[in-house]
Design goal:
This protein has 111 residues and is mainly alpha-helical. It has five helices and two strands. The protein has one domain. Strand 1 and strand 2 form a beta hairpin. Helices cover 49% and strands 4% of the residues.
Length: 111
Amino acid sequence: MPPEITRSISIGELVMNYPSAVEVLFSHGFHCIGCGLSAYETLEQGAAAHGYDDGMIDQIVTELREAAKNAVESEKKPAAIKSEIKAKQPGNGLSGSKIGGMKPAIAKKRK
């Protein structure tokens, strides 16, 4: 069972156990996730080094927990639903049965 997401979790442990945390950390300016200190530095220490106060650190912890929860819930969805959701996401080049604006070759009518 992965450790609980708290202020005292090391950044390395956080990222290793919760891959969804990377996006949240990046959004808050933690671009040093792969640096050597991330294995030892806690989330609280890293946030303080980036100038965040206690209230903002609490907000980051909340966002990390929410991202982890959403990732777990996403894993529970049937594959067909996940594929449909992914196809509807912007920026992936897919839209319905068309790929990049062109119909796939397998969609051609057979005579």
